[in-house]
Amino acid sequence: MKIIVITGGTDGIGKGLAMDSLKKGNTVVVIGRNHQKGQHFLEDANKIGAIERAFFFQADLSLVMENKRIVAEIESRFPTVDALILCAQHYRSERGETIEGFEKTFALYYLSRFILSYGLKNLMENADKPSVINVCAPGIEVGKIYWNDLQLTRNYSGLEAMMQSSRLNDLLGIGFAENDKINKIKYILFNPGGVSTSFSGEYDEVMKNQIVQIKKSAKPVQEGIKPIVKLLEKPPIKSISANMEGNEISLEHESFDRENAIKLFNITKNLL
C-alpha cells in the first residue's frame, strides 16, 4: 500500500482524494491549518475503519518555517512517500504579508509547493513509482509573471496573485524535472477545471458574487477527483506532464519555458 501526503486535505479536492485513498487501503497524511477540520477528517477516517492509517498535521503552509517543520516531521515518521498531492490555496482580495515578509498568496500557492516538492524528494525516491500532483491551473491563458515584482507590492489584486502563482507552478514543474537527475519522480501539473470546493478565501463583495455563480456550474468533488485518482494509480511515463480534467496538455507553450523555469528556481533559492 502507498503513503500519500496531501496539502489542503481537510476539504474540497484534497479531502475527497484523502478519503478515496484511505478506502483503498493507503496511508494518508493530511496537512492543513484548521484544527477543527483536521479532527473532522480523522473522525471520517475512523468511521470507515481507517483511523490507524490517517494522520493530520496542523500547519500554516504560508510560512517557510512551517513547511520545513512538516518536511522534518514526515521524514521522522515515514520511510517513503509514494505521492505528494499539492492542493492548498487561499484567495485574498487584499494584499497581506506573512511574519516572514512574503506576500501570502505567493507564499502559500507557490513557495510552499516548491519547498515540499524538493523537501520530500528523497523520501519519494524511496518509493517504487513516486509522483507529485500539483493541483493548479496549467493550460489557462490567463496570468503573467511579474519578474521585477513577484510579490506584487504594486497594483496588487487577488486574481492577479492567484494567476501569477499558477504560472509560477507551471515553471516549478518544469524546473523540478530539469533538476531531477535520478529521473524517477513523475511531476504532474493538474488543472481540475471547475470543481465545487469550499473556495477557501477572503473575498471582497465583487468576488463573493462571482464565486456564487461559479459554484452553480461547478462539478461535484467526487467527479472532479476522478482524473487525479487515475493519475495516482497509473502515473504518466514522462518526468513532467500537464493535464486538464484528464486530458494531457502540450508543454510546447511559453508557460513551460525551460529557461524561465531555471531562472525562477534560482530566484526562489535565493529568496529562501
TrEMBL record:
| UniProt keyword annotations, A-Z | Oxidoreductase
- The leader peptide range reads none
Pfam families documented for this protein: adh_short
Q: Which PANTHER family match?
A: ALCOHOL DEHYDROGENASE-LIKE C-TERMINAL DOMAIN-CONTAINING PROTEIN (PTHR47534:SF3), YALI0E05731P (PTHR47534)
Q: What is this protein called?
A: SDR family NAD(P)-dependent oxidoreductase
